[in-house]
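Bench log, entry 3. Co-assembly request; chain sequences pasted below exactly as received.
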Amino acid sequence: MGYYLLKRVLLFIPTLLGITLITFVLMQALPGDPVQGMAGERATAETIARIRSELGQDRPLPLQYLGYVKLLATGELGRSYYTNRKISDDLLQKFPNTLRLALAAMLFASIFGIGLGTLAAVKRGTNWDRVIAFVTVGGISIPVFWLGLALMLVFSLYFRVLPPSGMGNGRLEYLILPAVTLGTFSLSYIARVTRSSMLESLSQPYIAAARAKGLSETRVVLKHALKNSLIPIVTLIGLDLGSYLNGAVLTETIFGWDGLGRYALDGILKRDYPVIMGVVLFGAFVFVTMNLLVDLSYHLLDPRVRIKSET
Amino acid sequence: MLFKELKTNIPALVAVVILVLLVLTALVGPRLVSSDPRFMDLEHLKEPPSAAHWLGTDSTGRDILSRIVSGARISLSVGVIASALSLSIGIFFGLIAGYFGGKVDALLSQVFDIFLAFPSLILAIGISAVMPPGLTSAMLAITLVGWSGFARLVRGITLSLREQTYVEASRAIGASSPRILFHHILPNALPLILVAGSLRVGGFILLEAALSFLGLGVQPPTPSWGSMISLNRAYINSAPWMVIFPGLAISITVISFNMLGDFLRDKLDPRMQV
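Structure output for the full assembly:
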């Protein structure tokens, strides 16, 4: 157990280094001077000189890469071309907003996804199953940004029941449309996985046993089948949460949500490369960390996995 | 056999018919639609759907139907080409990692994992942002995002096929590694690879649409479905058709690909057969 954990955590390091290697290569491909890129347009001569010496552009590329990693290790992500603010400060300031949106979206996706998936599995082969199958295929196929605009059109502009954009100082009604938009994709995936996981559990002998001893169908489904189907679902929820920055770029743009996603889009539109690279690095870091946490929790939750990795 | 089953599966059949029509549209469509997708008819701005403009016109008087038809070419070609490229790269490295195992496998798997460690759209943004925006950079970005998933899948399949008796037999009679890989392992892995590929095309089309929406894909005046939505979203209240129809085009296309992928998976993936 301890050995496995140690190994898994140690594997985290080469992955992080690999990520920085990719962003380093991308930075090399950037048009213009990468030092100016890291320092920002209004950087003082001293800052530029310091970064130049850290990066050591006269040195061979591998050494330059080491310099880059060293800079990153001190939390130095550079400064924005336009505002000259530190990217790391901006990221930390925007992150809580994105996190709030992501958690709300995941709450919505989990409740409805698990609900619909369970319903589809229990009603397998009926029209319920077919309708849910169609809705969930739609949910993974519709572009996030278009779904957001469509919801906005219907609920904000036509029926005028929900605000079209902004954060409303944290008021709940401002959270609903962005969260539904961001969560629909996961909802559909969770429903599909829940359905197949539930079908597998429902065919197990212990379900027949539970039915044979006269338990009510609700109890059989919720207590025995669903509980044993939860592991792949929980895994999916964790992994999806890590990748929410994808959807957040689009969702936040549409709803004027002041988070990392909109920050990234601003960077793209202004060709503010340090901002773009900062978000890319941060997104990958969050994603890898979530993967690690999911792996570790999987290990703690499921005794079968534990035994397998020990032998 | 697959075709016979398709006839009894209505949703999959509908999906295939839609996809065939889409491909035809992409190939000959621009010639069928009367108006030029770039022609700005300044007399008819933001007009709702009518007999002259079936899906209406946009804020500069361009016909939305002809723009959607010519956008079909972009979306489909990006989806299909990016899938083909990332499949080829993924198959190549996946076969090598799975077949040779050991240090080669450890190293390659680490590389797959690093590419998989990025959220897909974020990596695609990073890649296409450093290149001049356009069709090529979007395609390259999607390929670089997509190949590692295929590589990991092919590696897994190869690992299990490597232990099959027929592979051992062929090794025993002295077949070379490339021969075993491409004549014995690859053909047997192909159904599963096909399933994964068909399930991903839709995702690639969505990724292209998202990049175009963010301004990192095909550049104006060439129409693409994603950029049509982003260019027209300011008018969503006064002229919603300008946003609704391109989005419907993306959704219908991707739903069709996903339905086809689900159908193929149910039929071809032995793990799904109960």
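Residues 87-122 of chain A form the longest helix (36 residues). The CA atoms of residues 143 and 185 of chain A lie 9 Å apart.
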